[in-house]
Amino acid sequence: MGTHAWDRLIDGFLTGIVQRPIVLDIALALVAAGIGLVGQPSAAAGTQAGYWIVVVGSCAALVARRSAPLAAMTALAAMLVLHIVVVAEVGVFAAAICMVAAHTTQTQLAGLWRWSFVGLLYAGTAGVLLYPSDQVVPVDPASRPQLLALSWALLTVAALGGALRRRRQAGIDLIRERAAFLETQRHAERRLAAAEERAGIARDLHDILGHSLNTITVQAEGARSVIRSDPDVADQAMATIGRLSRDAVDEIRGLLDVLRADADASDRRPTLTLDDLPQLTEAYRLSGVGLRFTIDGDPREPPALIGQTAYRIAQESITNATRHAPGAPIAVTVVVRRRHVELSISNEFPRKPTHNARSLGGHGLVGMEERVHALGGTFSAGPSHAPDAWRVAAVLPWRRS
């Protein structure tokens, strides 16, 4: 077996031990049993039987010290008391069990139980070592305080090691909780971004189809009315219908490409800006709509996303005006400021109600408002100061204030 194979085998073995703490506890119990075998006292058969009851019971408690820590510590305390009763000597096994118990109280027990058991260990050690019988501690009584100080020092080291391990494990658990929270938050942000992107695509589809179909309808009706009296105008209207259809198909194909792409929503790039507004308004003028368009400032200066939003608001507002107030004049005004863009679209109400006139509410206004608020701007739509006019106004900041 090669060196790399041995390394993989050892790594797998260590990983398995770390992932299965019961293996460590069983190994600790086996080591304790070995210590008990080496340090067994030389006494009568009855004492030997009692000693091995203590060893076996203590090892069983060590195996259960993680799964049932309170019961395991209680069993260890009982075994140590039994050890004092049945064995007339304090050996290395009892010392080792006391240190393991001191460490375990700090890593596995909580609150009052942790300090109660470690306090019992200190008190029990003091009682045994200061006991005035030479059979239990066969040393000079004058040396017993030094032996007690050494025993307490070892217990303190074991308890401090357990406390440090507990603190380290608490830090690791906190890091894991934070990582899990951040992962959950990241998934939530992804879902929110996906929902916002779907809402944006839905708004784009609404604007594209609403504008294109409405303009196509107007052009088709105009072509039908003049197809015999003025074939050239009818031909021009049909050409406009063809161009609008192709543009709509291209834009919808672009939106479908965004849906198919694996990139984040932030990678999506606007395709229409303020530079495209003259072409939009010209298409309506060619269809016979009385539309006046003015722009003050450089349309290429604002960021692309601001320009796209302004384009979509103007597109939706003009579409609504031609649908709900057919034949009414429309005024589109764009003012490019240093840090924001002002947009205004107004139209007169129709003189006579028509079959095309419907409620001015719906998804279009909601979509425009969502677009503006997403950029930190302001939006309003409703009757203007003029008694018979409707106005849509928006202010689009270049950056959030």
TrEMBL record:
CDD domains: HATPase_UhpB-NarQ-NarX-like. Pfam families: HisKA_3. Keywords: ATP-binding, Kinase, Membrane, Nucleotide-binding, Phosphoprotein, Transferase, Transmembrane, Transmembrane helix, Two-component regulatory system. Its EC number is 2.7.13.3. It catalyses: ATP + protein L-histidine = ADP + protein N-phospho-L-histidine. GO terms for molecular function: kinase activity. InterPro entries: HATPase_C_sf, Sensor_HK_TwoCompSys, Sig_transdc_His_kin_sub3_dim/P. Gene3D superfamilies: 1.20.5.1930, Histidine kinase-like ATPase, C-terminal domain (3.30.565.10). It is an enzyme of class 2 (transferase). Residues 197-262 form the Signal transduction histidine kinase subgroup 3 dimerisation and phosphoacceptor domain. The chain crosses the membrane at residues 20-38, 74-100, 112-133, 145-164. This is histidine kinase. It comes from Promicromonospora vindobonensis. The lineage of its organism: Bacteria, Bacillati, Actinomycetota, Actinomycetes, Micrococcales.
